[in-house]
Amino acid sequence: DWTSESFIEDQIAAIRQTVGEGKVLCAVSGGVDSSVMAALLIQAIGERAVCVFVDHGLLRKGEAEQVVETFGGHFHANLKAFEEKERFFGALAGVTDPERKRKIIGENFVRVFEDHANELRDCDFLAQGTLYPDVIESGSPTAAKIKTHHNVGGLPDWMRMKLIEPLRWLFKDEVRNVGRLLGLPEEMVEREPFPGPGLGVRILGEVTRERVRMVQEADWIFRSELRSRGLHKGIWQSYAALLDVRSVGVMGDERTYEQPIVLRAVQSEDAMTARAVNIPFDALEVIASRIVNEVDGVNRVFYDLTSKPPATIELE
Ligand code: XMP
């Protein structure tokens, strides 16, 4: 009968059988599915699993480093980590429209792959982190769509390789279990859903390095306080975002005119509906005070109480 152990054994055999002496291109984002998929491929075919990580500078604090450390360091994977912050911040300069930001991030993601085509085009397969619910949703088990379609703007022709989908029989909790058995760090296995355009859609208005820093620091404070108080359990997503307005405050003897952080934490089953989490007021008060004191450029903190619908989980 089915266990995570037997799944791993069977999949490793199946991957070796399918791939033969070939190479597999495996894009890792730092999210649960792509991380588990990469770990499985590395276990099955070692350095013929070509793991690609694009650091667009829009992940949470420490997450890009953790991807490099886990795959490049711990697993000794064939990891190609492309540091592309310059490209993304350059392309996003001056852009404030949410849909344009999404489009720019998706397109530049594809461009990174195009620019590195010479190193990548000899891959025979493209690994894709499709899960069982995606298979069901797409109607037929043979018709699984390119899941990343939300996030990328059309793949270059040379990337239309044969697809392999080693997680297509798993539900999310099974994926997490498999990840644990494969030795992925717990933070990675438990990671919340995170939008492909990353912090780009959590920074209202222009995305700059400075504003990314503000969101990363506020987000880090918020989530470490939740964790250290045991309040993170049962939360579907929690994050800090930056609004595109300024308001007046006072710090020491000085008047400030700076930007506000919004904190959002929701419970949900499937992201279709969501409710704000009832975080104790004293915790919120400590978090707000830490953020204003520790994050330069922030002078006010809000907590978002809105349900989905009518709001969405993300702010853009
Ligand atoms: P909303 O904001 O529509 O989000 O309530 C529902 C879920 O989808 C995630 N999300 C995205 N995921 N690319 C993604 O891969 C995106 O552009 C994107 N936008 C939203 C969001 O985090 C939530 O889990």
Describe this entry's structure for a reader:
ATP binds at residues 29-35. Keywords: ATP-binding, Glutamine amidotransferase, GMP biosynthesis, Ligase, Nucleotide-binding, Purine biosynthesis. Pathway: Purine metabolism; GMP biosynthesis; GMP from XMP (L-Gln route): step 1/1. With 316 residues, this protein is of the alpha/beta class. The chain folds into two domains: 4-189, HUPs (Rossmann fold); 202-303, GMP Synthetase, Chain A, domain 3 (2-Layer Sandwich). The protein contains eleven helices and ten strands. It has helices at 4-19, 32-45, 63-74, 85-92, 98-115, 117-120, 132-137, 172-181, 186-189, 209-228, 281-294, and strands at residues 24-27, 49-55, 78-83, 125-127, 162-164, 237-242, 247-251, 254-267, 275-276, 298-303. It is globular. Residues 102, 150-151, 193, 195-197, 237, 271, 308, 312-314 line the site of xanthosine-5'-monophosphate.
